[in-house]
Amino acid sequence: MEKGSLLGRLGDNRFREIKKLKKKNIPHYLHWFLKEDYFSEELLGIYRHEVDRFKNTAQEAFTIFEKATEKIISEKSLDLLGIPSFFHECIYHSWENREHHTFLYGRFDINGGFEKKGEKVIEFNADTCSTLPETLYWQPLQFAQLKSGSSMFNHLESALVNKLTKLHAKLGIENPVFLGSSFGYEEDKMNVNPILDLAYQAGFKPFYEDLENVVFSEEGIFYKVGEEYQIVDVWFKMIPWDWMFNDEPELAKIVSDLIVKNLVIVLNPPYTSIWQNKKFLAYITKHFPSEFIAKTYTNEPSLGDFVKKPVYGRIGENIQIKALGKRTETTGDYGKQDFIFQDYCPLLLDQENYYYQPGVFYMEEPVALNLRTQDQKIMTDDCEFMSHFILI
């Protein structure tokens, strides 16, 4: 059995199975996930002191991320992360004016924790953060099936409405236009639509367009309504900054200029491309070593167990784990990127050898917890989403 704490499925009363929800009682915007057989029919019980530790880990990590960002920007060292020089000014501008270029939300992925301490942040999904509809809508639906008296840690919806309402007030524009965009993949759109719904609650005029239908010019970002072009005040993108400045530099330059000229607000802002970059974790290890963040390096360690990850990899692709004399790896589309090496921090195991990945949504503070589970060490698109409740 791999090292790491074990959860007794029966012995410690952690898991709670609920009656399967009928499709007719599930909002239409979750039906796509149902087809993917993605939702677990069990909830995991987490003790309040464990939730507090996860929240504290996320808070401490964000504080360090801010300090390290200030340092790498003040020293003009973004070349260390491989970010193209033409995009640096945009990052500097958005960071120096971050009261205007607000960070909306992200998710810290954390390994370890629960019965044994030692939980560590292994990455920050700070740019195109997913698992939004699952956390906003599915988790409360399942939680509602439990007996009264239970609670969960999930204030994501109210926190997002509050943040978007503050952004609306800062703009000082009557009925500002809020455009959401993605590449058009169904899962991406499922993560954009909740933000559009919440933006409407916050007083915006929300619209959706696939990226290919959005117009970018020196005067602003536009989308077409009939025969007219409507200028966009806030652009929420489920489109990675790294894809933009590496694969579509001309588009990145246009958007960069618009941001520097304060002609549009983009969520999440350009400085989140630093946080999404796993070389930044190596920078933190060198300059701000912390018990809350997994030690990360740009060169392969000569000793010890480690995880090899692509710098901008996603959904568990092209990851290799070397641990206990064995190697585990996944394939994917990120194999040509630079790689980092991270101390191996094992995920939690249950008695049936399923692994658990906690995620803490962070805004101005930790606002929600979610869980993914899979029967292998690396979380991929084949994982399940598991809701939680707080054990008394």
List the helices and strands and how they pair.
Blueprint (H helix, E strand, L loop, with lengths): L5 E2 L7 E3 L13 H5 L3 E9 H27 L13 H9 L9 E6 L8 E6 L6 H12 L12 H16 L5 E5 L4 H16 L3 E4 L6 E3 L2 E6 L2 E4 L2 E4 L3 H7 L1 H12 L4 E3 L4 H5 L2 H9 L8 E2 L8 E5 L9 E4 L2 E4 L9 E5 L4 E3 L4 E8 L3 E9 L9 E8 L1
Parallel strand pairs: 1-18, 3-21, 6-7, 6-11, 11-12
Antiparallel strand pairs: 2-3, 4-5, 4-19, 8-9, 9-10, 13-17, 14-15, 14-17, 15-16, 18-19, 19-20, 20-21
Helix pairs in contact: 3-8, 5-6, 7-8
Structure in a nutshell:
The chain has helices spanning 31-35, 48-74, 88-96, 132-143, 156-171, 186-201, 241-247, 249-260, 272-276, 279-287; strands at 6-7, 15-17, 39-47, 106-111, 120-125, 177-181, 205-208, 215-217, 220-225, 228-231, 234-237, 265-267, 296-297, 306-310, 320-323, 326-329, 339-343, 348-350, 355-362, 366-374, 384-391. It is α+β, with helices and mostly antiparallel strands.
Structure characterization notes:
It is a single chain. The protein is an alpha+beta fold and 392 residues long. Helices cover 30% and strands 26% of the residues. The chain has 10 helices and 21 strands. The strands form 4 sheets. Strands 1, 2, 3, 4, 5, 18, 19, 20 and 21 form a 9-stranded mixed sheet that branches. It has a 5-stranded antiparallel sheet with strand order 13-17-14-15-16. A 4-stranded parallel sheet has the order 7-6-11-12, covered by helices on one side. Helix 3 (88-96) runs parallel beside helix 8 (249-260). The longest helix is centred in the first third of the chain and has 27 residues, at 48-74. It is globular and about 60 Å long. The model is unreliable at 3-11 (pLDDT under 50).
